[in-house]
Amino acid sequence: MAAKMNIDPLFTQQENRRQVYCVTGGGGYIGSWLVKTLLENGYTVHATLRDPGNTSKNSFLLSLPGAQERLRLFKADLCEEGSFDSAIHGCHGVFHVATPMEFGSKDPENEIVNAAVQGTLNVLKSCKRAESVRRVVFTSSLSAAIPFDKSLLVIDESCWTSLDVIRKINNHGRFYAEAKTLAEKAALQFGKENPSLAVVSIVLPIVAGTSRTSTAPFSIHMVLSLITGNPQLYGSLLQARDGFLGDSVSLIHVQDVCNAHVFLMEHPTAEGRYICCGNATTIPELAHLISEHYPQYTIKAKLDESVVAAGCARTISAKKLSDLGFIYKYSVAQVIDDSVQFFQKLGILN
C-alpha cells in the first residue's frame, strides 16, 4: 500500500536529481523506508550502514527502483568521529535516523545513551565540515516527550522527558528514552550554536505498517502482540500507553513518517521540534479493529478494559506540523492492515 508524497515538492522530479540527501541508519526500519521514498521522488541518496558489504542484509536496498543510478552505500559508525564525512560530503541535507539499539548490552548506559548522544554530535560535526548541508532532520521519539506531571493533559513540543524520573525506572526501555531525550536536546542545541546548519527534530509515536527489512521491526511486533500473545511485547505496548496518553496509544504509518521527514527537510520555514502523530486509539479499540478485519486470529492478550491506566487521559498535539501544511495519509485501519499483511508475508502469523 505504497503512497506517493503527500506534499507539493519544492522541486520537479528532474530538479530533485540534483538534490543529494544522506540517510544515517539506512538499513533500519525507518531508514530503509526513507531511502525508498527519496528514490521514488527522484532524489540521489547516500545511505550509511555499519556493514555495507553484507549483501545478504543490504541487498534489498540495492534492488529498490532507482537504486542503481541514485543510491550509494557508505560504511559509518556512530562512535567514530569523522566516519560520516565521506557519506555526507556533497549532500544538501541529512536525515539522522540511526540510533543505537543494544538492548542486550551489559552496559546500556554507555552503549545506548552515550553512543546516541556522541553519535548525533559526530554526524552533526560531519555536516558542519561538509559545508554543503543546509538542513538536518533528526528522528526522535515520544519517549523524549513524556510529561510526568499528571495535571498536564496535552503533549506538545514543549514537553520533555524528565531525566531524574526516567532514571528511577529499572528496565532497558528507560535507556532508550534517556538516549532519545539527550540526543535530541544535543542536536537542537548544536543547531542553535551553528545557525548556518538548520537542525529540525521530528518526534514519533509507535511506527508500524509494512517494512523493507527482512526481519520484523520491534514496533510492529509490539502492535501485533495482541494476536501473537507475546507477554513482553504486550507489556511494552501497555508501557507506551501508560507513559504517554494514559488511556490510549498513538500509531503512525511508516510512509507518513517518511513523508513528514521529507516535508520538514524541504519546507523553507521549518524550524525546531515537531511532533508527528497520526492516530490515537485505545487498546480495546485496537483489538476490536483487528478482530473485525482478521477474524481468523484470536486476541491472545489479556485486555485491560479499565478506562484510564495512568490516572489521566492526555492528547497529543501535532498542530505545529499540521499548521505548516503536512497532511497524513493513513488511518489506524490502514496501519493495522499493512502490519498484519507484512507479518503474514513473513509467516509469523501462520
From TrEMBL:
SUPFAM superfamilies: NAD(P)-binding Rossmann-fold domains. InterPro entries: Epimerase_deHydtase, NAD(P)-bd_dom_sf, NAD(P)_dehydrat-like. Pfam families: Epimerase (PF01370). Keywords: Oxidoreductase. One of its GO terms (molecular function) is oxidoreductase activity, acting on the CH-OH group of donors, NAD or NADP as acceptor. Residues 22-271 form the NAD-dependent epimerase/dehydratase domain. PANTHER family: NAD DEPENDENT EPIMERASE/DEHYDRATASE, OS07G0601900 PROTEIN. This is NAD-dependent epimerase/dehydratase domain-containing protein. It comes from Picea sitchensis.
